[in-house]
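tokens incoming
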């Protein structure tokens, strides 16, 4: 891997994030996703509601015709999305909007239709389950331990953390 242009190193270490584009783009290109931003900016492109239920997995480009009419418009690609089974119909109703938004994002009219593949979305994209707030008894106990801390923000953060640990381990009983 080569160092990103204009990057100055401190102690010879380069953050891994600087290599992300070099590492990911070849894998995305194999799936027809030549533009990495289609995946990385999906939430902004599709909107929160649609992005929660589907993800782009492939762009299928049509085969090139040997003797194509030069006056004919270029053949449009198909955007393939993975969608949670329960939301397939909702995603299908949003297809026209998705085509417009993706084409606007890419800057040219290249996507002509959307195809859906039902299946689970990756678990990393899902929100973690909300935890119940700590009990009052755990908060009081944690507040006693955090009392010597002078900084208000740090004391409150450690009190909340301690209360959740106390509730989880059963130390408040």
């Amino acid at each position: 891997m080569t160092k990103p242009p204009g990057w100055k190193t401190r102690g010879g270490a380069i953050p891994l994030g600087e290599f992300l584009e070099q590492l990911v783009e070849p894998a995305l290109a194999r799936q027809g996703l030549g533009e990495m931003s289609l995946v990385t900016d999906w939430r902004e492109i599709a909107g929160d509601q649609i992005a929660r239920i589907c993800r782009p997995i492939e762009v299928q480009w049509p085969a090139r015709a040997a003797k194509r009419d030069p006056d004919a418009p270029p053949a449009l690609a198909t955007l393939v999305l993975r969608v949670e089974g329960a939301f397939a119909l909702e995603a299908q109703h949003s297809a026209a909007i998705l085509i417009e938004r993706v084409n606007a994002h890419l800057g040219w009219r290249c996507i002509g239709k959307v195809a859906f593949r039902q299946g689970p979305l990756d678990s990393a994209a899902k929100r973690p389950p909300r935890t119940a707030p700590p009990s009052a008894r755990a908060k009081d106990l944690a507040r006693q331990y955090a009392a010597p801390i002078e900084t208000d923000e740090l004391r409150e953060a450690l009190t909340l953390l301690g209360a959740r640990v106390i509730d989880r381990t059963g130390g408040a009983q």
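note: The helical segments are 20-30, 37-40, 42-46, 48-51, 88-93, 95-106, 136-146, 152-169.
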